[in-house]
Amino acid sequence: MAPRFHATCSQDPPRSYVHISNLITLILIFSIICVVKRCYIGIEITLASDPTFWDNCHAFSIAYPILASSSGQAFLKQCKEARKEVYTWTLNRQEEWVESAGWGVNVVMTDKPLEYLAFRKQMEGAARLSFWHGPLVLWMLMAC
Questions:
Q1: Dist CA 53 CA 138 (whole Å)
Q2: Are residues 69 and 99 in the same domain?
Q3: Which residue in 28, 78, 89, 109 has the fewest CB atoms around it within 10 Å?
Q4: Residues of the chain with pLDDT > 70: what percent?
């Protein structure tokens, strides 16, 4: 099966995503595009931890329910210690956004980007208030 390419459009530099269905394809792709940053996208933490992916990917995109598990939290800690980026998907509720921020994930993917950005802006403002007025203010804003 040939890899599928998908380019995205955003304000960031252009990125290409390659769907890799097996390890042989991965090895062939590495020989062609060895300087490109690579990201594992999936739900299998054991596969992401395999040296073939772990040693060759700068980031790991893992589904939110997987990261919420105990093995997911252990994997997240391992990624942070190795300075690898962690992305998570698909978070559509405020509770998930807050929890993922507490985990320190680098990227949150959501079906509600405008709501997420507004919420994030509100929380950044609340964090500044909390810094000056204490954690009670942040707790009161979260309860609203």
A1: 39
A2: yes
A3: 28
A4: 65
Give the model confidence (pLDDT) of 51-77 as tens digits: 989 998 999 999 999 999 999 999 999
Q: Is pLDDT of 41 > 50?
A: yes
Look up tokens 């269905």; give the residue: 21
Sign of CA dihedral 32, 34, 37, 39: positive
107 and 66 inside one domain: yes
Hey, what are 97's tokens? Answer: 């956004």
Instruction: Quote the number of domains for the chain.
Output: 3
94 and 129 belong to one structural domain:
no
**Nearest in space to 57 (alpha carbons), one of 68, 65, 48:** 48
Name the average pLDDT for the chain: 78
Q: Show the domain range for 134.
A: 113-144
